[in-house]
Design a protein that fits this description.
- By secondary structure, the protein is mostly helical.
- It has one domain.
- 55% of the residues lie in helices and 5% in strands.
- The chain contains five helices and two strands, in the order H-H-E-E-H-H-H.
- It has a two-stranded antiparallel sheet with strand order 1-2.
- It is globular and about 60 Å long.
Length: 175
C-alpha cells in the first residue's frame, strides 16, 4: 500500500503545484528574495518517525490489487511529473502560495514539496520497523524479497527525494 499511497500523494501535490504555479503566473509573483532555510519547517510534525497510524483521507486510499511492478512504474511516472512542476516552480516565491493539508493544516508550497519526501521516508521507516520486528525466518521469502526491492527502489538514500526536490526548487538551501 505504501508505494501506491506515495504515488497518489505525489499526483495530488503535482496537481496542487500546477494550479499554484498558474496562480503565481497570474499574480506576477516574483522569486523568493529570502535566503532563509525552509528545510526544517515541518520538523515539529515528525512525519517520518511518528509511530501512530494516520488515517488517509478517502481520496488518497489506494485501490487494492495492483502488481508491484505496476506500482513502481506509476510511482516513477508521478515522480517525473512532480519534478516537472518543481522545475517550473523555482521562478516564484513558493512561501506565498498556500494550500491546506487534511491533517497538518495550511502548508505553503515549499512545505508541500518537503512533505512528499517526508511522507516517503515515513514508509521507509515502516519497512525498517517491520524488518526488525519480525525474524527473517518467520517471513516468507517472497515477502522479504518484496520488502528489499521496495526499500531499494523507494529509499536508496536518507532524504533522497527531499534533497532532490530541494535542490530543484528551494535555492535557499546550501548543499
Amino acid at each position: 500500500m505504501g508505494i501506491r499511497l506515495q504515488q497518489i500523494i505525489e499526483n495530488q501535490v503535482t496537481h496542487v503545484a500546477a494550479k499554484q504555479i498558474q496562480r503565481a503566473e497570474k499574480m506576477g509573483l516574483a522569486p523568493d528574495p529570502s535566503d532563509e532555510s525552509v528545510l526544517h519547517s515541518l520538523d515539529q510534525f515528525a512525519i517520518e518517525t511518528a509511530p501512530q497510524k494516520i488515517a488517509s483521507p478517502q481520496f488518497a486510499v489506494p485501490a487494492k490489487g495492483m502488481r508491484k511492478e505496476a506500482l513502481l512504474e506509476e510511482l516513477e511516472k508521478s515522480r517525473i511529473a512532480l519534478i516537472g512542476q518543481l522545475n517550473k516552480a523555482h521562478a516564484f516565491d513558493l512561501s506565498r502560495l498556500q494550500f491546506p493539508h487534511p491533517v497538518l493544516g495550511r502548508l505553503d508550497m515549499c512545505q508541500w514539496i518537503l512533505y512528499v519526501g517526508k511522507h516517503e521516508q515515513r514508509h521507509i521507516h515502516q519497512i525498517e520497523r517491520l524488518r526488525s520486528a519480525v525474524p527473517p525466518d518467520r517471513l516468507p521469502g517472497a515477502v522479504t524479497d518484496a520488502m528489499d526491492k521496495v526499500h531499494d527502489r523507494v529509499g536508496t538514500g536518507k532524504d533522497e527525494f527531499v534533497a532532490d526536490a530541494s535542490r530543484t526548487t528551494l535555492k535557499k538551501e546550501s548543499w
